[in-house]
Design brief:
Elements: E1 2-10, H1 14-23, E2 32-35, E3 40-42, H2 47-51, E4 61-63, H3 64-67, E5 73-75, E6 79-83, E7 88-91, E8 96-104, E9 109-110, E10 127-128, H4 136-145, E11 149-155, H5 165-179, E12 186-192, H6 201-213, E13 217-220, E14 222-228, E15 233-238, E16 245-248, E17 251-253, E18 258-259, H7 262-265, E19 291-293, H8 306-324, E20 337-344, E21 347-353, H9 372-388
Parallel strand pairs: 1-2, 1-8, 2-5, 8-19, 10-17, 11-12, 11-17, 12-13
Antiparallel strand pairs: 3-4, 6-7, 7-8, 9-18, 14-15, 15-16, 20-21
């Protein structure tokens, strides 16, 4: 048996829920179904502050049942394969669902297995990560136990969720060490696959000044490939053809390699890199016009953040509705994304920019300066806007 829905959405994350809310409300609501196996929905941007001891993990999640929009059918299953020529999706549970239009927004996957020696050691011996709900408490624990040695913060090769997050926890940790009189005993290292501290020139200059002022050791063009927990050594390959770098650590915050979910990579929807292949302005699939995608699993060449999703989804919904009516797709997404760069407790640089790396700022002051107001925005205002605005289709 095949069940049919006018609109089918893969994924109950930020993109999937906010798109569903917009489509299922308004003057002419459409029947919408979401395929999502998870019991919980997470507000992941706060995990930086959980790792820094500001909030508890529980503060960042709500039951999925509470965020599924009214009138939307929740299929608590896991998508497995696509048949776009026949407009259908099959789940791991063996059910097939047909659609008129499909929105693909399953997020991405964390590829912990690509780091040799890590398996079984997360949360032990100073190894920690803010990148998963079950690992983020280990960051705060490692930070509180740190007394001397090296604190390493890694940034892997390839696209990741929130490109600023690997350094946000570094800045918070460094500030914590200052506050507790431990900074002189600890060397802080930022080891990144990138070529600079940040990709947008305006914010890069501001962050480079902080690197110098706060005595951060930076290593660029380096990717974590191995952890030796018994020796407390991290091994980094060089992306420039140099010899591997081995650094001892007392604290090692790992940002894992990330990629599109395997079922996306193996599907006809994927591009050569495994992401859902969509036009970067319309968000419509390049080969299947009844398929759209937003969020982390899409091929959109911008930072993978909730702020980007907030601008992508209205464009996607407007174009999907136009497509249903046989009209031209006139809505256009220009790559807006935001990265609230926490630089300490009560300090934040708010980076906002587009596809071309041009600042697209929301406030009439220099957002490259550290401000408490922007920290308060991230910690208190944006979560409220997310839960009560964006996920309701209102923001």
């Amino acid at each position: 048996m095949t069940t049919h829905f006018p609109i089918l959405i893969i994924g109950g994350g930020a993109a999937g829920i906010s798109a569903a809310a917009r489509l299922a409300s308004g003057d002419t609501p459409l029947p919408v179904a979401i395929i999502e196996p998870a019991d919980w929905h997470y507000y992941q941007p706060l995990w930086t502050l959980v790792g820094g001891g500001v909030f508890t993990p529980e503060h960042t999640r709500k039951p999925m049942s509470e965020v599924i929009p009214p009138g939307v059918t929740w299929l608590k299953e896991r998508a497995a394969s696509f048949d776009p020529d026949n407009h259908s999706v099959t789940t791991e549970e063996g059910n097939t669902y047909a659609y008129e239009q499909l929105i693909v927004a399953p997020g991405l996957q964390l590829d912990w297995h690509k780091i040799k020696g890590l398996d079984g050691h997360m949360g032990k011996g100073g190894i920690c990560s803010n990148y998963a709900y079950n690992t983020v408490p280990s960051t705060w624990e490692a930070l509180q136990n740190l007394r001397s040695g090296n604190a390493l913060f890694t940034f892997p090769a390839g696209p990741i969720k929130c490109g600023g997050a690997p350094q946000k926890i570094m800045w918070l940790s460094e500030h914590y060490l200052q506050r507790h009189g431990l900074r002189d005993n600890i060397d802080v290292h930022f080891v990144s696959s990138g070529g600079a501290i940040f990709g947008v020139e305006k914010y890069k200059k501001a962050l480079e000044k902080l690197v110098e002022q706060r005595n951060i050791h930076t290593h660029f063009g380096r990717n974590l490939i191995e952890v030796r927990p018994d020796d407390k050594v991290a091994v980094f390959e060089s992306l420039k053809g140099e010899a591997p770098l081995e650094l001892p650590y007392a604290m090692l915050h790992i940002t894992p390699p990330q990629s599109a979910p395997d079922f996306i990579k193996q599907s006809p929807l994927a591009n050569a890199e495994g992401w859902v292949d969509v036009h970067k302005h319309s968000l419509q699939h390049t080969r299947y016009p009844d398929i759209f995608s937003a969020g982390d699993a899409s091929s959109l060449p911008t930072a993978k953040t909730g702020a980007a999703v907030r601008k992508q989804v209205p464009t996607l919904v407007q174009n999907l509705l136009a497509h249903r009516q046989g009209k031209p797709l006139t809505a256009s997404y220009h790559g807006y994304t935001s990265c609230p760069l926490v630089t300490g407790y009560g300090r934040l640089i708010l980076a906002e920019f587009d596809y071309d790396g041009n600042p697209v700022e929301s406030f009439p002051f220099d957002q490259a300066k550290e401000r408490y107001s922007m920290y308060a925005l991230k910690a208190y205002a944006l979560p409220e806007m997310y839960w009560h605005g964006m996920l309701k289709g209102r923001a």
